[in-house]
Amino acid sequence: MKRVPSCVPEPTVVIMARALCLLGLVLALVFTSSVEEYVGLSANQCAVPAKDRVDCGYPQVTSEQCNNRGCCFDSSIPEVPWCFKPLQETECTF
């Protein structure tokens, strides 16, 4: 009698596939939510203390929309503007 191959994957294969999917999901979330990009701005310009932030956006503004306005976006601190005006870099002239 011939043995017919089973279409049901082995438990270790299922576990590994789930682990890889979970890892991919976690990495995608980390890179999309924690990376604060400052397009055309330096990180120093966007190092504005929460109490000094001047709102530059509107409700539900995305980081891309905020950056397109020339503003900084940082959603890590609740109840303060997430889209805010950058600090102006000054040049020393003698």
From TrEMBL:
Disulfide bonds join 46-72, 56-71, 66-83. GO terms for cellular component: extracellular space; secretory granule. GO terms for molecular function: identical protein binding. It is found in: Cytoplasm; Secreted, Extracellular space, Extracellular matrix. Monomer. Homodimer; disulfide-linked. It comes from the Eukaryota. It holds the Pfam family Trefoil. Involved in the maintenance and repair of the intestinal mucosa. Promotes the mobility of epithelial cells in healing processes (motogen). Residues 1-28 form the signal peptide. The keyword Cytoplasm applies. The lineage of its organism: Eukaryota, Metazoa, Chordata, Craniata, Vertebrata. Residues 44-87 form the P-type domain. The keyword Cytoplasm applies. Gene3D superfamilies: Spasmolytic Protein, domain 1. Its main location: cytoplasm. GO terms for biological process: maintenance of gastrointestinal epithelium; regulation of glucose metabolic process. Keywords: Cytoplasm, Disulfide bond, Extracellular matrix, Secreted, Signal. This is Trefoil factor 3.
